[in-house]
Structure formats: C-alpha cells, structure tokens
Design goal:
It contains nine helices and six strands; from the N terminus they run H-H-E-E-H-H-E-H-E-H-H-E-E-H-H. Strands 1-3-2-4-6-5 form a six-stranded mixed sheet, sandwiched between helices. Helix 1 crosses helix 4 and helix 2 packs antiparallel against helix 5. It binds uracil (URA).
Length: about 270
C-alpha cells in the first residue's frame, strides 16, 4: 500500500474513532505489536501470473454485473415507478459502487445533495457512512450503496410502505445482480422492506436476519438467502449523537466484519 493512502486510512480511522466515540483504531499492526502502523508502507504485492485466469473470470463477472445494473437502471427510468407518488426530484439516484461487492449498504431515499449530484449518500449522512465504511477497513469503492427509493421525497419524508413496495422490485434486482455476501440495512424503511416486517429498529438492529426472510416475499422467490444486519441510519446517528448510539452502530458493523473476515486496515 502506498504511503499517502496508508496515511489517509490511518487518519480516517482516527477520525472515525472520534466520531463514533469508540476506540477501535489499531495503532500497532496485528502480528507485530512493536511496529507502528505508520511504518508499514512497503508491503510487496504477491506475484500474480499464476492467478491470472481467476482475475479474468472475476473481471468477466464484474463487467456483466455492471452491464446488468446499467440495463436495470434504464428499465427503472423507462418504468418510472415514482410517477405513482409525489417526489421532489431532479435526478434518479440509482446506486453506485462495486457491481461485485461483498457488502451492500441500503438506505432509504436520496436527500438534497444526492438529488443534486445523482449519487447516493454524499450529504452529511453520507459522510458519516464513508467513515463507517473506512472503519470496517474498506473504501467506498469496495461496497455497493443503494436506496429503497431512487428519487428524493418532498422534505426528505420517510418513504411510505406503498412507495417502498412500488420501488422494491428494482432494489431486489440490484441485490440479485450484485449478490453480496452481506447486506447492512440503514434505518427502518430498508430494514422493514428487506425483512418483510413491521418491527421497530430497536428490536431489529444488531441481530442477523436474512433476505429474503424465511417467509419469502412473493417477488423474490428463487433467491439464495443473504445475511442482513439492520443498523441505525447515519442520519439518525447524527441526530442522536450519543456514545451509546455510536457504540451500538459500531458493534453492529463489527458483527458484519466478523462474518466477512474484515479487519480494520493496518
Ligand atoms: N439518506 C439515505 O437514506 N440515502 C441517501 O442516499 C442519502 C441520505
């Protein structure tokens, strides 16, 4: 890893640690407690030639997933399910990230900044989400980020059940194409939609569930179940900025890290 990237990660971790109010930034690399992270800048890449065919296969899967997501985005635009409800949108915020991501985050709907840029989670909640992702040892480019609704609701209103139902097939298809190993649902609308429940976030968060739920939703028959970790929405964390809330979110993310074998990057 090059030095500026490592320095950026170390400082991101320090920032996240401060923001989430938890002490999880490893200041010494694992396996070598005497060597500070800041000295580890020259990891040598392994020779890759013997692995080349595998990389080609992964690249093939990535480009076909990317093409499938693009076709789905066009289908969404053509169908415009949001024409059936009130919006305040100027752009379609379809989702972004690695089409083969191992981890997917799902929020509720674009806000003002997302509507302006056409990108999910780029406003204040998105900045906190970026820090959560960095704290997990990942970059935004490693994950895929989507929302239940692809258009901004008026006054950032919470999506109704009917709005979520109309847009769900596109989100479910995004999940099927990306086929992540785990999903983090951010807040109530995404958690309730994927898990087919009306339970509160207080009950759902921190407990592994699966998508599709054991009582499968009719429109997602044929899916292999994907582990889902519901957690609080970053906008809620910003509103309830207590050590307790931040610690809960971090413990939810740590469960995801454990499942995926992720370590906060040293
Ligand atoms: N909140 C969301 O749920 N999604 C976004 O993209 C931004 C804010």
């Amino acid at each position: 890893m090059n030095e500026p990237r490592l320095a950026r990660l170390v400082s991101q971790h320090a920032m996240t640690s401060r923001l989430l109010g938890v002490d999880f930034v490893p200041s010494y690399q694992s396996g070598n407690p005497d060597r500070p992270v800041s000295e580890v800048v020259e990891a040598k890449p392994a020779p890759v030639s013997a692995k080349a065919p595998i990389f080609v296969a992964v690249d093939d899967r990535r480009s076909s997933a990317r093409a499938a997501l693009e076709a789905l985005r066009e289908q969404y635009i053509a169908d415009a399910p949001h024409q059936h409800f009130v919006t305040d949108h100027h752009s379609i915020v379809f989702g972004e990230g690695d089409p083969c991501a191992r981890l997917m985050f799902i929020g509720e709907a674009p806000g003002a900044e997302e509507d302006r840029t056409g990108r999910p989670f780029v406003g204040p909640a998105g900045q906190l989400l970026d820090k959560m992702i960095a704290a997990m040892g990942l970059g935004r480019e490693d994950v895929y980020i989507a929302n239940v609704l692809k258009t901004r609701p008026p006054n950032n209103a919470t999506p109704t059940t009917e709005e979520a139902r109309l847009c769900a097939p596109y989100l479910f298809e995004q999940i099927r194409i990306i086929s992540p190993e785990a999903i983090v649902t951010l807040g109530r609308p995404a958690s309730q939609l994927l898990l087919g429940t009306t339970e509160s976030m207080g009950r759902l968060r921190g407990h592994w569930a699966q998508f599709p739920p054991p009582e499968p939703l009719a429109e997602v028959a044929g899916f292999d179940p994907i582990p889902v970790m519901p957690t609080y929405h970053p906008a809620y964390v910003l509103r309830q900025y207590t050590a307790d809330t931040r610690q809960r979110v971090w413990s939810d993310l740590q469960q995801v890290m454990e499942l995926l074998g992720l370590k906060a990057r040293a």
